[in-house]
User: What shape does this take?
Amino acid sequence: MHDYINLIGVLQETQEECGYLRKDRLEELSAKLEIPLSRIYSVATYYKSFSLIPPAKHTVTVCMGTACYVRGAPRIVERISQILNIRPGETTPDSMFKLETVNCLGACALGPLVVIDGEYYGEMSPQKIGGIINNYR
Amino acid sequence: MSNKALKETVISVAGGTCGLASGAGKVREAFAAELGQRELNIPCILTGCKGFCAVEPIVTIGDIFYCRVKPEDAGRIIDETVIKGNLVEDLLFESEGNRFSTVDTIPFYKDQKRWLLELTGKIDPTSIDDYIREGGYESLKKALAMEPEQIIEAIKKSGLRGRGGGGFPTGRKWESCRNSTYSETRYIICNADEGDPGCFQDRSILEGNPHLVIEGMVIGGYAVGTGEGYIYVRAEYPLAVKHLEIALQQAREKGFLGKNILDSGFDFDITIVRGAGAFVCGESSALFASVEGRLGEPRVKHIHGTDKGLWDKPTTLNNVKTWASVPLIIKKGADWFASVGTETSKGTMIFSLVGKVKNTGLVEVPMGITLRELIFNIGGGILGDKRFKAVQTGGPSGGCLPESCLDLPVDYEALTDAGSMMGSGGMVVMDEDTCMVQVARYFLAFTQEESCGKCSPCSEGTYLMLKILDKFIAGKADEEDLKNLEEISRMVKETALCGLGKSAPNPVLTTLRYFRDEYLAHIEGKCPAGVCPALIRYEIDPEKCTGCNLCFQNCPQDAIEGEKKQPHKIIQDKCIKCGICLEVCKFDAVLKQ
Assistant: This one.
């Protein structure tokens, strides 16, 4: 196979180990792989699946795929934002919840779909989501 | 059932991502437990997706099709169907008073042509033996006995075109790559970076029948003349990656991959590269950059990827469905493949049929079928029997087609002429409750977010368009905005660097073309579909309100007042138009105006 460093793959492994891309680990990688830290940083911030901050205890992911969208996903995001007082992409100050939106989880028949820590909640509504989030507090 | 039949019985639980999300895993566990209790040695396998997402979890035994199966149903299915051979009536698919006992009679499946999806949902995707038993890798044996040029000729003759969006003739792409004089080293890549929102056909194939794609790639590698292949998979598809890894390992063990494949002297292997969440990486030059471990930014393509692709070497990049079509063409012949379809579009196409349609799912149809047949016969019509408004094909790069386009055939040229595109197979159905300005904004917001920022027409142009659409949604737009929106859309379409940017204005341009009256209504301060919050208000009908207090309790803004058992009232200044009151009211007393 072609002799090269798959930087994205290396970063994915690093993130799987620590949950996020810790600065000291990136510095180690830079020294070890002889890749400038600035280049690692540019890749780490370009791709959406990388994070430079520690993960929250619970990740709330709202699917914003087209099917979920036409079935009312924006209203769910709006409601969760209001309950947790954060915008999509943000983490609560106590690191309990992170709110994420994703383009499509491919479970379109269940839309609108919310996933909390890998657990799927289908056919959500702004009313139902409040109680579900409370169960994770 | 007779002893012989019992011996051959296999219980299949559909376990694609959507099936698992609906509880297929628990259903399978229940079967295993119930079979154990009865000391029955019958296999219960978790297959890939059966495609009919709307009625998951699905269990099939031979041709018998049970839907919405719960774990507690496992015992009765075993006792009644497996042992006695009777049907469990209440688990059959039901539509308009009719019950359907077998797969091929169900309207959703009846008009489909499941070529690529034939084995998806039938075999255990983690077992290469299952695939081989169904004739798998026979095409590879046949291909290795042919000359590479003969294979390319067959692919050209079949009329197969790229299933990822562009629709470029596959055989010609292979030929250019094989004959390229830029370098002796070549690569082939499978593009599985399925980033379109509302699209999951590539995922389903990779999860449900990974060997079909691998077989297609080995044949392609032999035809193009390379020993190295890559599969670029989207980061969000962990199950697909897992099944691919298992399949690659099994294929190596059986000698279908690696050195001297089937004693032919041909060496070939495949590496999986996981994407990291960037839609633009589905674009060829951005994908090459990403595989190389760099930023996924497109470049100007004066020279085609078939001459200068991955690491500047001649590269053949094809979509999952394109690769998956290859073994079928080799096995059954180019004429067989070309016998289905229209003049310029041959074979079958897989669509993710989603949105406001009754039978949500993955459908494989012959090219040339009309949109109407697809949505109303296979899809079963609109949810809640509402009125059809538009169908969006081609993902964020495609367009919205109105009712007047419903009799168009599924054909690359016909869809492009209507302002949309085939794309990689997303099909989103919208009903009368969908605001087309919001839909245009939704897709544009997606491409704006995913714009890599390299060229200004795309990064700045889509931003400006988004701001104008926001004015429409807020009810603050005028005729001038409409003119600007059209002008900027055309500018972006003509001058953006890559396919993502060039096609980004399509949703706006098609909604302007077919649903202009909705834009004009927004200028007048009305949202005909009743969606845009700034242009609607909620009221309580004092005649119908019983004062049950339910809306009062659920309102997140404390925007509802009124004594118990007295008609309530909405305080408009506080209302954020979330619609919860409308949703919870049991007396239809909340009105949206």
In short: The first strand of chain B starts at residue 11 and ends at 14. Chain B has a mean pLDDT of 92. Chain B touches chain A through 60 residues (CB under 8 Å).
